[in-house]
Write a sequence for this structure.
């Protein structure tokens, strides 16, 4: 039995199951809800299966069509891919559960096929080692994300989705032109082969510029974040959770892979630039979040800030190796869990009071304790207080910055934490009191509250799981700590 | 504002010069993967190299790209119906007659393009595009899908391309082979089956995109 | 300079021209067209440089990529046009509200 289980192509299941599930939900809307939940559970099991396979047998490799690179397309999973896949499966399961309570039946039948295709596309993206294939998955992710943003209609959501679509298409095209240049320069789009063949040349610099700019736009790194707050704040709550927790991480992941495989050796001062933009994002995003008067916009600007932390790792990585990259891994997964929980909590508040104005939050702690608790727990991780995944990430980042004497970055990390505390407490402080305009509560389904609590608790819990997490992350040596990889 | 436009143009000009320089720095003679493709052509099941890359060597891209097309339709349908464009005038006799003549011709052309893709330029996407054009022409003359075809029959036709592709892709897996690893002896037949379903689905999807709403929606506004 | 490079430079030109249009025009239809022009530029670069082998037949891999790219572009354009019509219906104009930029 065990032998069979460890032989199964779990990585492929992660791609095929949600694709099949999405098509099935489209054909059989009557049972879409059951099919959707089943698919999300199966994806979670497949992610666990892949994790088990990786820990016992090392990296996962699948040459689609049996051709192998450079002629064919290779799927590849190491510790970094696994981290992203597990993160996606966890958040995906929580979001699926939440959505069954959130959407009205008419919207729910449209939600399932789009969401399951997005889930499959994210998994396909995290498993791909082929730059052109990554482009196709990137477009799948982008288009489904835009369609989900506009799902419930409404003026803000439609204009937010439109702006988002234009930004994401522009980013993809810049990326694709970079892929075209790399292919014509080095005769392959396979990441591993490219990492062996690439030599510093004008083509590589042009590709580096185009692809970094395109992916940074899609990741909404300051100052190219203009499209994120309107889209993330106006989308339906479960969609906002997916957008902030997973979709922006997809383009970030491609940039990280490109960086590790190709660009880190030849890029010169680009790491410094990334660090600068990241610092700008932390400060600007946090300040804007503090200024907001609506919960969802506040949470959306918090995403802008938290993305900044991820980019602080680039200038710190060369001297610090695994410490800096572990910080990034922690920040990635803890932000995904915590931010998804926050958007779910915000959705609950909206359903509960019919609005998300912070000043008019009315006795939430007494009347909606689970939601308030989920927001608080997620807030702990976002602020970086112990014990939480967010704390581990920021602590490691701080260590890396201190060890290299980067006092400027130390200041940014510290200030970002203080500002985060400010905006989290801005919301929490208003949940205890009676608002000037009181309202009768509208009931919120228990599973919407529990989904938020579960993900928020997950963000706390991973703070205690550092040794197994780090052991899995190092499968396949994704960060080239022990020489050239992957 | 004028100064800003001037600056923008200057920056874009610099971008163009930089990218142009990068392009010109590429080697004069390069074949990319052409030798690899030609070396494996006899195992691909077709004789046209572009079709071999699309449906076999990089068939996984094509599978995902079918999903992209389906996704665009799901996205449009989830918008809940587009505001109907009011035709300026009723379709005249010219459009009517032209459609009567052209639609059968287009269907035959699509079939030919599909068949010829195995050894010459053509294939599922070109054929599907022609089929989609026939669907658009029909809609321009006021034709609408009959009610009994608008529910499940339409949905099944829309997903048939990607569903059949998924099945064909997964067939080798129970035998311990890789995703999309066709047996060279059957590769030609399998590719034709995949392309035939893809053609119909692409054509119908394009026509449905033009219509812009789920025809079973109660009140498309 | 050989012919493939000439076409590739035209592709770069189209990419930058489309980028310019995307930034300066407000109407969404123009923005969507501008994106398509950028896409055509990228496709032209891909296809043109595939014919650098002298008299040899062109490299088929970029051709297949371009077909894939075109289908993706058609899909994205369809969704964008649908969204544009909905934006127009909701706001009365096919332009993005300018004030929400921060």
């Amino acid at each position: 039995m065990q032998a069979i289980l460890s032989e199964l192509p779990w990585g492929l299941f992660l791609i095929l199951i949600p694709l099949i599930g999405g098509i099935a939900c489209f054909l059989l809307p009557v049972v879409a809800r059951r099919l959707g939940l089943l698919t999300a559970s199966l994806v979670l099991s497949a992610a666990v299966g892949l994790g088990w396979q990786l820990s016992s047998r090392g990296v996962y490799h699948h040459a689609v069509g049996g051709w192998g690179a450079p002629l064919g397309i290779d799927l590849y999973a190491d510790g970094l891919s696994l981290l992203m896949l597990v993160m996606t499966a966890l958040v995906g399961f929580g979001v699926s559960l939440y959505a069954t309570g959130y959407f009205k039946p008419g919207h729910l039948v449209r939600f399932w096929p789009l969401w399951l295709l997005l889930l499959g596309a994210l998994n396909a993206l995290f498993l791909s080692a082929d730059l052109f294939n990554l482009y196709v998955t990137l477009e799948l992710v982008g288009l489904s994300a835009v369609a989900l943003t506009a799902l419930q209609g409404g003026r803000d959501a439609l204009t937010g989705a439109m702006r988002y679509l234009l930004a994401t298409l522009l980013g993809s095209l810049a990326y694709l032109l970079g892929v075209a240049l790399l292919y014509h320069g080095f005769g392959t789009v396979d990441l591993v082969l490219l990492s062996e063949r690439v030599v510093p040349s004008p083509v590589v610099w042009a590709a580096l510029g185009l692809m970094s700019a395109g992916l940074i736009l899609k990741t909404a790194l300051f100052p190219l974040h203009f499209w994120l707050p309107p889209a993330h704040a106006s989308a339906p709550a479960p969609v906002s959770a997916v957008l902030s927790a997973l979709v922006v991480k997809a383009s970030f992941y491609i940039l990280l892979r490109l960086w590790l495989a190709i660009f880190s050796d030849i890029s010169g001062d680009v790491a410094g630039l990334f660090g600068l933009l990241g610092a700008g994002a932390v400060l600007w995003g946090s300040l804007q979040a503090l200024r907001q008067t609506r919960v969802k916009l506040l949470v959306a600007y918090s995403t802008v800030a938290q993305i900044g932390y991820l980019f602080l790792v680039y200038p710190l990585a060369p001297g610090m190796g695994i410490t800096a990259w572990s910080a990034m891994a922690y920040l990635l997964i803890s932000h995904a869990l915590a931010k998804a929980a926050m958007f779910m909590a915000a959705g609950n508040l909206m359903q509960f009071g019919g609005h998300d104005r912070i000043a008019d939050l009315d006795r939430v702690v007494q009347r909606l304790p689970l939601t308030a608790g989920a927001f608080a727990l997620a807030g702990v991780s976002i602020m970086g207080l112990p014990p939480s995944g967010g704390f581990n990430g920021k602590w490691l980042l701080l260590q890396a910055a201190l060890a290299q004497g980067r006092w400027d970055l130390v200041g940014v990390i510290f200030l970002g934490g203080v500002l985060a505390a400010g905006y989290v407490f801005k919301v929490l402080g208003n949940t205890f009191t009676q608002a000037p305009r009181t309202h009768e509560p509208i009931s919120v389904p228990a599973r919407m509250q529990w989904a938020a609590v579960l993900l928020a608790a997950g963000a706390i819990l991973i703070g205690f799981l550092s040794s197994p997490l780090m052991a899995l992350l190092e499968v396949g040596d994704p960060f080239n700590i022990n020489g050239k990889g992957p | 504002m004028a100064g800003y436009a001037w600056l923008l143009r200057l920056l874009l000009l610099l971008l163009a010069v930089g990218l142009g320089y990068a392009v010109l720095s590429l080697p004069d003679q390069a074949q990319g993967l052409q030798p690899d493709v030609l070396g494996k052509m006899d195992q691909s099941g077709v004789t046209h190299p572009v079709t071999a890359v699309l449906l076999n060597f990089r068939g996984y891209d094509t599978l995902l790209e079918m999903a992209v097309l389906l996704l665009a339709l799901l996205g449009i349908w989830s918008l809940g119906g587009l505001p109907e464009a009011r035709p300026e005038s009723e379709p005249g006799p010219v459009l009517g007659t032209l459609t009567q003549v052209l639609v059968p011709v287009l269907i035959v052309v699509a079939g030919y393009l599909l068949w010829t893709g195995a050894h010459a330029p053509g294939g599922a996407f070109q054929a599907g595009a022609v089929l989609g054009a026939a669907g658009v022409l029909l809609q321009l003359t006021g034709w609408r899908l009959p009610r009994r075809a608008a529910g499940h029959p339409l949905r099944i036709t829309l997903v048939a391309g990607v569903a059949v592709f998924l099945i064909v892709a997964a067939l080798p897996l129970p035998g311990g082979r890789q995703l999309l690893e066709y047996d060279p002896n059957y590769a030609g037949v399998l590719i034709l089956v995949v392309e035939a379903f893809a053609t119909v689905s692409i054509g119908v999807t394009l026509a449905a995109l033009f219509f812009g709403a789920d025809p079973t929606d109660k009140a498309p506004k | 300079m050989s012919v493939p490079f000439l076409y590739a430079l035209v592709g770069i030109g189209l990419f930058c021209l489309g980028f310019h249009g995307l930034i300066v025009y407000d109407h969404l239809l123009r923005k969507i067209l501008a994106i398509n022009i950028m896409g055509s530029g990228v496709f032209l670069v891909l296809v043109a440089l595939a014919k650098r082998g002298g008299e040899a037949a062109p490299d088929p891999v970029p051709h297949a990529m371009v077909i894939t790219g075109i289908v993706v572009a058609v899909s994205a354009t369809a969704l964008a046009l649908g969204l544009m019509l909905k934006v127009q219906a909701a706001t009365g104009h096919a332009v993005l509200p300018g004030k929400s930029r921060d």
Q: What stands out?
A: The mean pLDDT of chain C is 92. The radius of gyration of chain C is 17 Å. DSSP finds three helices and no strands in chain C.
